[in-house]
Design brief:
With about 300 residues, the chain is an alpha/beta fold. It contains twelve helices and nine strands. Strands 4-3-2-5-6-9-7 form a seven-stranded mixed β-sheet, with helices on both faces. Strands 1-8 form a two-stranded antiparallel ribbon. Strand 2, helix 3 and strand 3 form a beta-alpha-beta unit. Helix 9 crosses helix 12 and helix 11 packs across helix 12. The radius of gyration is 22 Å and the shape is elongated.
Length: about 300
């Protein structure tokens, strides 16, 4: 692959990028004979100050094991390896994974394992069990797979303590939105039930190469936080949320009738017992109200 390349050569701690302008990053890609792939949604973070803030948000300790999703050219990988015990740097693009491994990471980066593959197939539970501690996840996520990645992490939440993720700002707004907000929906309810979601910062397009057309934003998700009201059946809870928002322009009673394949009489009974007005729309319900609906529906089913 030729000589070893570093974006961090001007700073002893390898954090400051040598290429601060898009044309310099573009020149590196040209010299490597490759270009970012649109089909993979590749926008490489190139701002070292942003990377420092993202790493700081991970609240790393010496014994932490980190899974980096979309390692790219190592702008997060390098500072992560300085603070964590182990870094699994997942990169789907084989060309970029090889460059990271052979030309960017220092030869003594023994605590970094570059994983060529899809983060959706990564076994968080297996790694958690191997190291005997919960993992932390971090990444600049391709916009096209950001929601599947989030649901993958939620599904793997028993193996995670924290995640710091960069999304398209529209997605981050949905994650942290409150009832009554136009961004409030399925992603909001499920994220806020299974995690504690915190907005960290907005990142401008100029911080990436190539530049995306929209702003990005970083969100920190804390796992293992006990919800104020516990869903007795998480699968049913998820089904109720998806049914309610499946026809979000309709009244709640109509959306639930259609989405849960129940009769209107059954739905009216559910809403009456829950004390929730069926003329409300899904975006007005709190997370706790969705939990209440699913718990009562479970009990009605048990006794009928």
């Amino acid at each position: 692959m030729g000589r070893r390349f570093s974006f961090f050569a001007l700073c002893p701690n390898r954090l400051r990028m040598r290429v601060g302008r898009n044309k310099s990053v573009a020149a590196f890609f040209k010299s490597a004979g490759i270009s970012p792939q649109k089909r993979l949604g590749q926008h490489f973070l190139k701002d070292a100050l942003i990377s420092q803030d993202v790493v700081a948000a991970c609240e790393l300790e010496n014994e932490d094991v980190v899974v980096e999703i979309g390692a790219g050219l190592g702008v997060l990988t390098l500072p992560l390896r300085e603070k964590a015990k182990k870094v699994f740097a997942i990169e789907l693009d084989g060309r970029i994974a090889q460059i990271l491994r052979e030309r960017i990471l220092p030869k003594d980066a023994n605590n970094v394992e570059v994983v060529r593959g899809d983060a959706l197939g990564f076994d968080f539970h297996e790694v958690c069990e191997k190291y005997g501690r919960k993992l932390k996840a971090v990444g600049n996520l391709p916009y096209s797979i950001s929601t599947p990645i989030l649901f993958k992490l939620i599904k793997s939440r028993d193996a995670l303590s924290l995640a710091v993720l960069m999304f398209q700002k529209e997605v981050s707004d949905r994650i942290v939105a409150k009832p009554g907000n136009k961004s409030y929906g399925i992603l909001s309810v499920l994220s806020q039930y299974f995690t504690k979601a915190e907005p960290i910062m907005v990142v401008s397009p100029e911080s990436f190469y190539p530049q995306p057309k929209v702003n990005s934003a970083v969100v920190r998700l804390r796992f293992g936080i006990s919800p104020r009201v516990v869903a007795e059946d998480e699968t049913l809870f998820t089904a109720v949320v998806k049914a309610a928002f499946g026809k979000r322009r309709k009244f709640l009673r109509n959306a639930l009738t259609y989405g849960l394949n129940l009769s209107l009489k059954e739905v009216n009974n559910l809403l009456s017992v829950s004390g929730i007005d069926g003329r409300r729309r899904a975006e007005t319900l709190s997370v706790e109200e969705f939990v209440k609906l699913s718990n009562i529906l479970k009990r009605i089913r048990l006794y009928n």
